[in-house]
Amino acid sequence: MFKGKIRGMLLDLSGTLHIDxxxxxxxxxxxxxxxxxxxxxRFVTNSTKTSDERLYRKLxxxxxxxxxxxxxxxxxxAKRLIVQHGYRPLLLLEDDALEQFSDIDQSAPYTAxxxxxxxxxxxxxxxxEAFGALLEGAxxxxxxxxxxxxxxxxxxxxxxxxxVAALEYAADKKATMVGKPVKEFYELALRDMDMLxxxxxxxxxxxxxxxxxxxxxxxxxxxxxxxxxGKYRAGDETKSSVQPDGVFDTFADIVxxxxxx
Length: 261
Fold this sequence. Notes:
- By secondary structure, this protein is α/β, with parallel strands linked by helices.
- It is built from 9 helices and 14 strands.
- A hairpin with a 2-residue loop joins strand 2 and strand 3 (22-23).
- InterPro entries: HAD-like_sf (IPR036412), HAD-SF_hydro_IIA (IPR006357), HAD_sf (IPR023214), LHPP/HDHD2 (IPR006355), STAS_dom (IPR002645).
- One of its GO terms (molecular function) is metal ion binding.
């Protein structure tokens, strides 16, 4: 299954290491086992419901040993884009995520509409305000296109992808995407690992065959490993053109196989 030695691993968070406040089986111990084996780890997540700082505190509270600098979020990628372009954004984000943008000018007229996972903002009033800003010339930025995500009780809930698509359709405007599976997002983590020139020695682990393992992960030649936790549903690996290099029951099972290889 592994053509060469895995020396680095990019890890999805929600659905792979934890589901809301529930840790997936043996995930905490498996992360420690990875580190003890000398495998470099970075966390790459499309989680946008809370700020990066809140996410980090949650992960440590769940028992994961990690450094704040090891976590790469699509929320940070969105903020980087906003700063680079000097946007005054209309942010469709949850309040816990908005705190990360407190230093950004968010006054009208807006020059960008930024859409993350924001269940409390996906109503007609907020969506129509975003539509109006787009008609006035604002750019559309989608943090990611996930169709759905897994809630703690195992049910699937709509992700932001459908709402990004609705605004694209209504305003006849294509969104710029910043999170997984955008190639540049993975490259940020690979560069930090000093493994940008050896992606074949890095595994991407996630529960979404498209958002985690497709796009940039496939283009870069990462080893792509799918877990049957989180949003995974039976047969996901056969329902798209993206074919994972391996399918495992849990993240911990992947670690066992990689360390033993």
